[in-house]
Amino acid sequence: MIDAAMVSVSGDAKLRQRPAERKGSTIDQTILSPGTVSINVQEAFIVDEDPSRPPSPSDDGVQHDTDIRLPNHKAVVSHVALDIGGSLAKLVYFSREPDSKDHGGRLSFLKFETDRIDQCLEFVKRLQDEFHIQNGQKSGSMVIMATGGGAYKFYDEMKKVLGVEVLREDEMDCLIMGLDFFITEIPREVFTYNDADPMHFEEARADIYPYLLVNIGSGVSMIKVSDRRKFERIGGTSLGGGTLWGLLSLLTGARTFDDMLKMAEVGDNGAVDMLVGDIYGTDYGKIGLKSTTIASSFGKVFKMKRQGENMAEDLGGLSHDNEEDGNIIPSSQPTFKPEDISRSLLYAVSNNIGQIAYLQSEKHNLERIYFGGSFIGGHRQTIQTLSYAIDFWSKGEKKAYFLRHEGYLGSVGAFLKRQPRNWGRRNSFEEYPVVRPTIQHRVD
């Protein structure tokens, strides 16, 4: 097991400088032909202080996730990768270690709200400037690898603002390539959850097929992966992260997804949901249902509102002090806390996704189920709910697998697309600067 260094990286440290390399060197040559750069991921590890604590966004709304250290990489990397979804834009880029004499560097991971794509592009422009300073090359030599729907929606804007080549890659291709890389190459990346061991890390492994990828973004896609180049979308649901975000913004007034998750952490869904215990007064052990099992999401709301209306009538009728569009609002309406609503809706969306994922895994005979996408965000309640759903419906025969960089599958896949065919595979490691002509081409 590789011993991961315990280092925190602030947002300001994301843009790094190093002295320009000597002209005529192999590194200079790779800048001119970026598609032939071999990036060495041997002995890669995640740079982190506390893997069980999800990162928090900075004041500007940008979330800086944990970096991956590449201690043995020596060549220049002249591209960045963007996965632009309906809600979030995910950025991956390589940078050198600050004030370091060795040639190592790191992959850095950032999230931006898609509605603030200008902020994301401004950050990439800063990376261009740094690339220019470090390597003495014109900024146009940097390439943007883009995937997701936003790669098409914002294509013209990216070219106009950044003035560089933008290469668009297929979203599903990138998701699978990114996930394969994390599963096979990065230690302490993949983990399972249970109450006794909330973060049990899985060893990086090569025998990973077949498996089911459940990618949860604004919506949900479920993909059966049989091999590196053989996969198909077998299902999904429109009830995903965008559903949670949209409904909670209406019901609670929360302005960011992070605010919603924070409220869900302290909420009590039992104040909103109808539980098995509310119906039976205890567990329903015969069919394996605990008293805390949700029988009906938001099931108490109607009942409590009716009770409030009846109470108002008993106290002398309805109040006409609050009227809106002709609708009379009872004076004794029950109130529901935003925190409780947030937790209830989070459970409703997560449970639905978990059950559909299990059913798809059964239909296609898939034992391993990987959950990815920015909806998860390292959030304990989400991970716990998805894990419980898979364990419950499979009677303990299947496991839910999670990733610490679950939101970056597509952007990492797009990043890999700029590399030779065997980039990131252990059998492709070689001493720099040896380059084998047989792998000097891009993977399309």
How would you describe the overall organization of this protein?
This protein has 444 residues and is of the alpha+beta class. Helices cover 32% and strands 20% of the residues. It contains twelve helices and 18 strands.
**Beta-strand proportion:** 15-25%
Provide the residue-averaged pLDDT: 78
Which range best describes the helical content: under 10%, 10-25%, 25-40%, 40-55%, 55-70% or over 70%? 25-40%
Report the structural category.
Answer: alpha+beta
The H-and-E topology, N to C, reads as: HEEEEEHEHHEHEEEEEHHEHEHEEHEHEH
Number of strands: 18
- How far apart the termini lie comes to 34 Å
- Contiguous runs where pLDDT drops below 50 for at least 5 residues: 1-37, 426-444
Given the structure, what is the number of helices? 12
Give the overall silhouette: globular
| Sequence of strands across the biggest β-sheet | 1-2-5-4-3-6-7
Instruction: Report the sheet with the most strands, covering strand number, pairing sense and barrel closure.
Output: 7 strands, mixed
Gyration radius, in Å: 25 Å
